[in-house]
Amino acid sequence: MRLSGRLSAAIEILDDFEKRRVPLKTAIADWSRMNRYAGAKDRAWISGLCLDALRKRNSVAAMMGEQCPRALALGALRFLWAKPAEEIAEAAAEEPHGPGALSHDETLAVGEDEGLSSSPCGAEDVRAEERKVALCNPHVAGDYPEWLSPQIERAFGENASVIMSAFAERADIDLRINTLKSSPEKVLSALKTVKAAAVPFLKTAARIAAPEPSEKAPGVTVIPAFNKGWVEVQDLGSQIAAAAAGDIKGAQVLDYCAGGGGKTLALAAMMENTGQLYAYDRDPRRLKPLFHRAKRAGVRNLQIRSPAGGEGLDDLAGKMDVVFIDAPCSGAGTWRRHPDTKWRLTEKQLQTRMSEQDQVLREAASFVKPGGRMVWVTCSFLMEENEDRLATFVKAHPQFSCVPVLEHIGGSGLLTDMGLAVIKRCVTTDDAIRLTPDKLRSDGFFMSVLNRKGG
Fold first, then answer.
1. In this structure, are residues 28 and 50 in contact, taking their beta carbons and an 8 Å threshold?
2. Domain 236-452: which CATH number of 3.40.640.10, 3.40.50.150, 3.30.70.1710, 2.60.40.790
């Protein structure tokens, strides 16, 4: 496909996303099914432009003076991908595949010389000033929904724009080295084919730098190291969150919201196949991938308790050394990878997640034995989904109290000295940890550890 056709496709997909409010990947998949002539490189280019346009929707719209799908695609191509204005103008006007010639305002916005002389005297200066004013707004500079401003400013204060800008960048591809199957040294050597390098913060983490936005990501899941079970694709923040469980070798551990099992497998590796690990999720469909993933990873101490099979947890009540809760949440911490979700999130959905979190805390607490601990994790940086939920829980359950997370992460043995120094900067006033991409280039995660009295 020529640039003209790719640009038109991106506009069509963004328009579908806006109208149907479906996940962006759904809009892309639907477009691909209807346009099978598009090759893999075309699809990667189109998907990359759509993702970048949504990552920085507010700031791109401010530069263009318009927030419609066409303006976002043109603006992303010009301001994020640095495509020359003349080339953009030619592609837009190209028939029959282009989206249509640039308007006078679009020409001015992307910086094309032609047409400037026909604008009223000083009009371009007024436009530049309007852009400058718009970009001074924190929610525009940080590219987040304006309605979330109070919550984000509460979490990050005067650093909100800077931190949220990091959430609008493209994400690296992080890998977790599975020590049940191989050593970090051996795996890193095998990962040279996908240009992965060790992450200096965690002994078992590797990273592939984010590819250029128009390029397809390396096919990690087809390399021998992946199929042998040596590595799993897992964000660095998610790996650190699993490490918050601490030293769990030989322990009885319940992963209460296991889902597809990414953190379950990380916990199993930390346990070195000792003790007993239970994986549960109230939605049995989410557990389905874990059966195959655990086998590939060489996990031998795992019991998957699925509601679909009538397998409950009654026999585990009050017996777990550690209950790990990867709680349902807004997913705000994953906005780098899934930028469409920040524009689809509503106040009602946030309230629903908070109610679910309260319920999960109450349910999971019953499985912690006296003297045991509960690990709370969300891929959200919002205090409403974390500190507020824990405060409400502890008030109603005084037998639980929050303890320093950093000590438990250190107890896992996975942190390097550099990692310890960096994560110390992420410790909150109440000894929890809030990870953000400006510090670790990871997704956003919150984690807290609560001990139960007794034992």
1. yes
2. 3.40.50.150
